[in-house]
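Q: Given only this backbone (252 positions), what sequence would you predict?
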């Protein structure tokens, strides 16, 4: 299916690997101009820019664990996109453990960094994007949340689940409050995705797959496909919704 992404300019965060990389490739293949983003792995982000070719406008380096980096990333991406971004896919995220028995210092650090990368940086990017997009007639924001945002997480990843739950609320507020100014906002709630963040060891994969009725994890390409469909504006009336992508492992 061809999607109306031609001529649109998109920032995709965390696009050196996994879901973000697949999303950048798919958006470009569907005609969008894409700005990529990397952190410690800039060589991979730069390689992706080369691989995508002329539809890639460049890659921005930003460590989203640093307060303020979200706005800086958005501003740098806007510059690469010659002053107009129609789409932002907030995909960068971390899945750090925060067990109850960690030291106080570890507990506080892991909660703070998880909330900073998974939530606050997204809020900062949206804060920058909303007025810009509204001034240009509108735009679409797709936030990659998680099944954990609804269902809760395992006992070692309480901070991760909390960050993704908050991201769902943030997305709904944007959709409700700025829809009248042309801003569309969606969240995706994947279960396990077959990326390096997902279970990789054979036994861990088997355990994860055993709880998924269709018997496999989602692919990065499936998440990218849903992001492309929603970001294209093909179903603008779905704004404010969150799409589950979990093989029916959690049905709400
Ligand atoms: P991944 O680890 O391959 O990708 C995560 C991306 O986030 C990377 O590109 C990384 O560079 C970026 N990132 C991490 N920390 C950063 C920081 N401090 N500053 C800037 N960028 C940073 O994993 P993925 O599966 O592609 O994850 C993509 C999104 O999907 C994440 O938001 C994740 O929470 C979500 N998700 C993943 C799964 C899964 O099973 N893999 C399940 C549900 C939701």
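A: Predicted residues:
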């Amino acid at each position: 299916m061809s999607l109306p992404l031609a001529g649109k300019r998109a920032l995709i965060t965390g696009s050196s690997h996994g879901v973000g990389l697949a999303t950048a490739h798919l958006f470009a293949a569907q005609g969008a101009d894409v700005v990529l983003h990397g952190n410690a792995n800039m060589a991979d982000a730069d390689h992706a820019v080369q691989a995508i070719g002329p539809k890639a406008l460049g890659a921005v380096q930003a460590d989203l664990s640093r307060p303020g980096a979200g706005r800086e990333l958005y501003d740098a991406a806007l510059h690469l996109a010659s002053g107009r971004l129609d789409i932002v896919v907030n995909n960068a995220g971390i899945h750090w453990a925060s067990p109850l028995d960690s030291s106080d210092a570890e507990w506080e650090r892991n909660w703070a960094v998880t909330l900073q990368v998974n939530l606050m940086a997204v809020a900062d990017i949206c804060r920058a994007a909303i007025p810009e997009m509204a001034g240009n007639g509108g735009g679409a924001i797709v936030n990659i949340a998680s099944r954990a945002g609804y269902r809760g997480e395992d006992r070692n990843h309480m901070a991760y689940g909390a960050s993704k739950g908050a991201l769902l609320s943030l997305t709904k507020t944007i959709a409700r409050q700025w829809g009248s100014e042309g801003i569309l906002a969606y969240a995706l709630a994947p279960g396990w995705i077959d990326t390096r963040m997902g279970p990789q060891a054979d036994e861990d994969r088997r355990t994860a797959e055993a709880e998924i009725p269709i018997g496999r994890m989602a692919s990065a390409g499936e998440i990218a496909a849903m992001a492309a469909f929603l970001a294209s504006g093909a179903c603008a009336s779905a704004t404010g919704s969150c799409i589950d992508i979990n093989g029916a492992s959690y049905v709400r």
